């Protein structure tokens, strides 16, 4: 309650100051309208509107009919209040109003304080020595209370002299010093006084607004509930005072920085700022809309962009509107890409090129002369940057690659040799989406291995193929880890059949295993596909994807080659749900090798592993402590039935066992445990 009271007092204080400010007051605060006294009712809206129009025509266009109609309103019972208020609202009322206003000031009853206050306020708008004299006479008369205060306020407003207060003698002394000045000198004195008073009031307003802002900050900090904070933020964004609207933008930005998303009311309020008179606030509103990320297109944003003339604000709006690529943006994009490439307009120009690239990427077409205009603007932007800075920014490069000629694409490819990392990245991303550009990109990476990472990232974002993968894998002059990371990244975007094909062609087992890791996370079964086992009434099983099943078996074989039998079993276990539907011989043979290697001979004996698998398992475990046991199982299991080649391999292992010391078997890596 204390805070509400403080805020209310502050607002009352500001309203009191605003009542003394001329119509062209600084800081965007307008003079208070209407009579100050609560006892005199407001004029009817239609009458006040008519009075304003008549006075404007009479003053601006010197229309005798308008002047006569206004004076008739001033003298009528029905329009009297509206005419006085319209005159009081005028910054510089015409001098032909002096005589009727002076007559009203002399004829008013002493008890009619409210009406006379309105007359004095109207006189304060006529910047004439006669008006000053009439108001001094009113101040020196017998009137008291509101009418006397209104006369003093009108004198202060007319002359800018607030230091003379309500003292008739001090006003007479001042008036005596200026009464006989020539008209230009009189106007100068009045202008200087009003300007000084306006500056004084502006300083007072700045102080009052500063205190009000701190009160609102405190209110925000003390508001604990998200709903309460959102309501306060929405109210600030919609406030009539620009300073409080700026505070609202600041506090909403703070909410977002702290990962707190305001509710829909704040987004709606931010949209209203898109039409604000302040270019700074319009730009802030566009950035807020971008950050709040509404799911639906913001109609107010498109409308505001269509009317925007400030380049900094247009830049923010174009970047916000790019979230919803649309053909509706083309007129504004073309307008700003053709703006002068200097100063603040440069940012809007580049934002328009980014918006164009986004629209093109989402399938929005541009044909004919408009297409040529966009390409010419992109070429100009590229050339003005010298081909190494803004010219390489994503929008420019993307437009040139998508819509330009082969020469344009070669020019963008030239940036791949740039010393600026941002230029190389922008060029790589733009080229990767175009067949011709992809060829240029891969060619550049083959000549400069430092481009391998940028090329891999660009290809991944734009759909690589097996040929691109293999060309990357053949690049030399880059360390093994960097190359492996790049290949794994590209492999993550390949369709599974192509992934299997390229993995089979990789010589390095470590890289092959890293590439094949993706099959562990890929669904094994085809969607919505199954086969029935055990006859028409038997259970159904999911139909496996051939490339995924083959990929898992290749992964198991690769892990065996790398000395990871437990990892090989982990890959094979993923195939258990579809084991009866794939090549059982290969599956059993791989499992046999891994089990023998891990000294799980009894488990291996339960499956139909081939003789060659048992011999391979023997060879893998020959140096381990359980090697002799595996040898005994092989001889017992197969006897003399082995062919000559397998028999010779067994004999070689036997000789090794007789000569080599034994070591412990490999530990079950990756937390592997045998299936139950």
In short:
With 676 residues, the chain is mainly alpha-helical.
How would you describe this protein?
The protein is an all-alpha fold. The protein has helices at about 1-20, 45-60, 65-75, 80-90, 100-105, 115-125, 130-140, 145-160, 170-180, 185-220, 225-235, 240-255, 265-270, 280-290, 300-305, 310-320, 330-335, 345-360, 370-385, 395-405, 405-415, 420-430, 435-445, 450-460, 465-475, 480-490, 495-505, 510-515, 545-560, 565-575, 585-595, 600-605, 610-620, 625-640, 645-660; strands spanning about 525-530, 540-545. The protein has a two-stranded antiparallel sheet with strand order 1-2. The longest helix has about 40 residues, at about 185-220. It is elongated, with a radius of gyration of 43 Å.
Number of strands: 2
Q: In what order do the strands lie side by side in the largest sheet?
A: 1-2
Number of helices: 35
Biggest β-sheet strands, sense, barrel = 2 strands, antiparallel
Task: Identify low-pLDDT runs.
Answer: 1-42, 531-540, 668-676
Mass-distribution shape: elongated
Report mean pLDDT, rounded to a whole number.
Answer: 82
């Amino acid at each position: 309650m204390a805070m509400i009271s403080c805020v209310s007092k502050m607002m009352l204080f500001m309203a009191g100051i605003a009542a003394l400010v001329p119509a062209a007051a600084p800081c965007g605060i307008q003079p208070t309208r209407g009579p100050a006294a609560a006892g005199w009712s407001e004029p009817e809206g239609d009458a006040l509107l008519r009075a304003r129009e008549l006075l404007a025509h009479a003053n601006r266009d010197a229309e005798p009919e308008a002047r006569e109609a206004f004076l008739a309103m001033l003298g009528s019972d029905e329009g009297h209040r509206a005419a006085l208020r319209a005159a009081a609202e005028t910054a510089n009322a015409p001098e032909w109003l002096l005589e009727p206003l002076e007559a009203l000031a002399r004829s008013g009853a002493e008890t009619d304080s409210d009406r006379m206050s309105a007359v004095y306020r109207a006189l304060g708008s006529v910047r004439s020595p006669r008006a000053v004299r009439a108001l001094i006479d009113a101040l020196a008369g017998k009137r008291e209370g509101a009418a006397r205060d209104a006369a003093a306020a009108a004198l202060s407003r007319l002359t800018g002299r607030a230091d003379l207060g309500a003292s008739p003698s001090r006003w007479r002394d001042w008036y005596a010093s200026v009464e006989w000045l020539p008209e230009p000198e009189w106007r100068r004195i009045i202008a200087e006084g009003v300007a000084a008073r306006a500056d004084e009031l502006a300083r007072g307003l700045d102080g009052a607004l500063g205190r009000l802002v701190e009160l609102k900050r405190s209110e925000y900090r003390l508001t604990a509930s998200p709903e309460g904070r959102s309501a306060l933020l929405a109210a600030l964004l919609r406030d009539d005072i620009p300073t409080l609207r700026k505070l609202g933008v600041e506090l909403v930005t703070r909410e977002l920085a702290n990962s707190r998303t305001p509710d829909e009311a704040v987004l709606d309020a931010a949209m209203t700022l898109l039409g604000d008179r302040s270019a700074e606030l319009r730009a802030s509103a566009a950035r807020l809309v971008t950050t709040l990320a509404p799911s639906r297109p913001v109609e107010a944003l498109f409308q505001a962009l269509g009317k925007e003339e400030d380049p900094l604000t247009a830049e923010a709006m174009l970047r916000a509107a790019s979230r919803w690529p649309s053909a509706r943006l083309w007129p504004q994009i073309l307008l700003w890409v053709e703006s002068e490439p200097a100063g603040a307009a440069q940012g809007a120009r580049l934002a328009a090129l980014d918006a164009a690239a986004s629209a093109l990427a989402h399938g929005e077409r541009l044909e004919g002369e408009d297409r040529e205009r966009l390409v010419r603007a992109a070429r100009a932007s590229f050339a003005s940057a010298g081909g190494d800075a803004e010219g390489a920014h994503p929008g420019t490069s993307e437009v040139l690659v998508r819509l330009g000629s082969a020469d344009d694409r070669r020019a963008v490819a030239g940036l791949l040799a740039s010393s600026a990392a941002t230029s190389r990245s922008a060029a790589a991303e733009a080229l990767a989406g175009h067949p011709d550009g992809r060829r240029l990109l891969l060619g550049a990476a083959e000549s400069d291995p430092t481009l391998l990472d940028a090329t891999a990232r660009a290809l991944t974002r734009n759909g690589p193929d097996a040929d691109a993968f293999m060309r990357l894998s053949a690049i030399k002059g880059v360390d093994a880890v960097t190359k492996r990371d790049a290949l794994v990244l590209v492999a993550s975007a390949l369709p599974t059949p192509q992934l299997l094909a390229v993995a089979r062609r990789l010589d390095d087992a470590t890289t092959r295993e890293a590439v094949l890791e993706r099959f562990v996370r890929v669904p094994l079964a085809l969607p919505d596909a199954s086969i029935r086992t055990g006859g028409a009434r038997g259970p159904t099983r999911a139909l496996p994807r051939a490339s995924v099943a083959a990929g898992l078996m290749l992964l198991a074989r690769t892990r065996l080659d790398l000395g990871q039998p437990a990892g090989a079993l982990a890959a094979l276990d993923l195939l258990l749900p579809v084991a009866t539907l794939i090549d059982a011989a290969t599956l059993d043979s791989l499992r046999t090798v891994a089990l023998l290697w891990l000294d799980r001979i009894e488990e291996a004996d339960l499956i139909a592993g081939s003789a060659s698998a048992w011999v391979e398992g023997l060879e893998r475990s020959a140096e381990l402590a359980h090697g002799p046991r595996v040898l005994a199982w092989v001889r017992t299991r197969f006897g003399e039935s082995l062919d000559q080649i397998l028999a010779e391999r067994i004999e070689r292992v036997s000789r090794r066992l007789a000569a080599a010391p034994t070591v412990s078997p490999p530990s079950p890596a990756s937390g592997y445990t045998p299936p139950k």
